[in-house]
Amino acid sequence: MTSKLHTFLSALSCEQYTRLLSRSLDSKLSFSERLSFYTHHILCVVCRRYRRQILLIERMAQKVAGADYAKDKQERAGSAGGELSAEARERIESELSRELATRCNKPNG
Ligand SMILES: [Zn+2]
Questions:
Q1: In terms of pTM, does the model score above 0.70?
Q2: CB distance 35 to 65 below 8 Å
Q3: In Å, what is the CA distance from 96 to each residue of 36, 62, 65, 84?
Q4: Ligand 1 center from residue 66 Cα (angstroms)
């Protein structure tokens, strides 16, 4: 690997990684963004852990909110607007609290 390419690949900060991660949940990243993203992903254990947690929350939100969440995600992809219903938000919050309580009480979790 040339040093110029190496500098480019490792130049992504953790903050930039998290921004790309958020965007990648709603839309497809460009090739160069994906390249930088996965290079940082391989090199940074903190961001790998963060991504796992975000994906867990995403899956739980999908599970709890069901159709509301899918609709909201579609709206977010299409425009900046879109809100979950109050009922869906409550369900997500209570499910997250329950899941976090379960995980925090596990001896090896
Ligand atoms: Zn990082």
A1: no
A2: no
A3: 31, 12, 12, 15
A4: 31
Tell me how far the alpha carbon of residue 8 lies from the centroid of ligand 1, in angstroms: 15
Ligand 1 centroid distance, CA of 12 (Å): 8
Report the candidate in 50, 51, 44 with the shortest Cα–Cα distance to residue 13. Answer: 44
Indicate whether 79 pLDDT > 60: no
Mean pLDDT of 16-25: 94
Q: What's phi and psi for 47, nearest 5 deg?
A: -70, -35
Using the mean position of ligand 1's atoms as its centre, give its distance from the Cα of residue 40 in Å. Answer: 6
Q: CA 34, CA 84: separation in Å to the nearest integer?
A: 29
Q: What percent of the chain has pLDDT over 70?
A: 72
What totals of helices (H) and strands (E) does the chain contain, helices first? 6, 0
* CA terminus-to-terminus distance, the chain: 38
